Amino acid sequence: EVQLVESGGGLAQPGGSLRLSCAASGFRFNGYWMTWVRQAPGKGLEWVAHIKRDGSEEYYVDSVKGRFAISRDNAKNSLYLQMNSLTAEDTAIYYCARSDWSHAFDVWGQGTMVTVSS
Amino acid sequence: DIQMTQSPSSLSASVGERVTITCRASQSISTYLNWYQQKSGRAPKLLIYAASTLQTGVPSRFSGSGSGTDFTLTISSLQPEDFATYYCQQSYSNPVYTFGQGTKLENK
């Protein structure tokens, strides 16, 4: 079964850091670009970051550039999101997703909640 | 940056009705347009990619059309399980992406 499972969410203080993980199974992980999408409480979807199959290219939404870093370990079938200098505006459910050949996000994890509050 | 605008933001409809949701891009995106369905408390699900191609397993009552800047998602005969929020997403500027703000489809 094709599956993505996120972990690592929780409560962080403003200015703090968190590292999210996404474990992939059921497909050839190194054959796909991967992405993070977030959803603030009661709000819509926001694309956050994207990484090439071999990890050699990364792309970010402007609001997280310089603070967040996407990475992957293809040997461990895992995707990561290092989040630094967190603010209340980063409070959201974070989803990892697989990007297929048509650049659509065809497989999603269940999401992990990040709350930034003092 | 490419902006995506959906209309309406919310919609009330009854089972059996035909429903249409519109998505407009701030510039031409050819057919690089995807549609997602999100039910309350669940992850989004891909419905349609490349503007009009139905994802495997998605019922045929869903259809998509359009190119350039104007796109539509149509549900031909609304079913109880279709009440959800729908999002369009452009992939023209990949690997940078944007979503529309969503359309909440509610039971009348």
First-residue to last-residue Cα separation of chain A: 39 Å
Q: How many DSSP helices of chain A?
A: 0
Characterize the main sheet of chain B.
7 strands, mixed
What's the mean pLDDT score of chain A?
A: 97
Q: Which bin fits the share of residues in helices of chain B? A: under 10%
Task: Calculate Rg of chain A over CA atoms.
Answer: 13 Å
Largest sheet features of chain A = 7 strands, mixed
Model description:
The complex is a heterodimer of chains A (118) and B (108). Chain A has strands at residues 3-7, 10-12, 18-25, 33-39, 45-51, 58-60, 68-73, 78-83, 92-99, 105-108, 112-116. Chain A has 118 residues and is mainly β. Chain A starts with a strand and ends with a strand. The mean pLDDT of chain A is 97. In chain B, 35% of the residues are buried. The model of chain B has no long low-confidence stretch (mean pLDDT 97). Chain A binds chain B through residues 33, 35, 37, 44-47, 50, 52, 57, 59, 61, 95, 99-100, 102-106, 108-111, and chain B through 32, 34, 36, 38, 43-46, 49-50, 53, 55, 87, 89, 91, 94-102.
In brief:
The complex is a heterodimer of chains A (118) and B (108). Chain A is mostly beta strands and 118 residues long.
SSE layout and pairings?
The complex is a heterodimer of chains A (118) and B (108).
Chain A: E1 3-7, E2 10-12, E3 18-25, E4 33-39, E5 45-51, E6 58-60, E7 68-73, E8 78-83, E9 92-99, E10 105-108, E11 112-116
Parallel strand pairs in A: 2-11
Antiparallel strand pairs in A: 1-3, 3-8, 4-5, 4-9, 5-6, 7-8, 9-10, 9-11
Chain B: E1 4-7, E2 10-13, E3 19-25, E4 33-38, E5 45-49, E6 53-54, E7 62-67, E8 70-75, E9 85-90, E10 98-99, E11 103-107
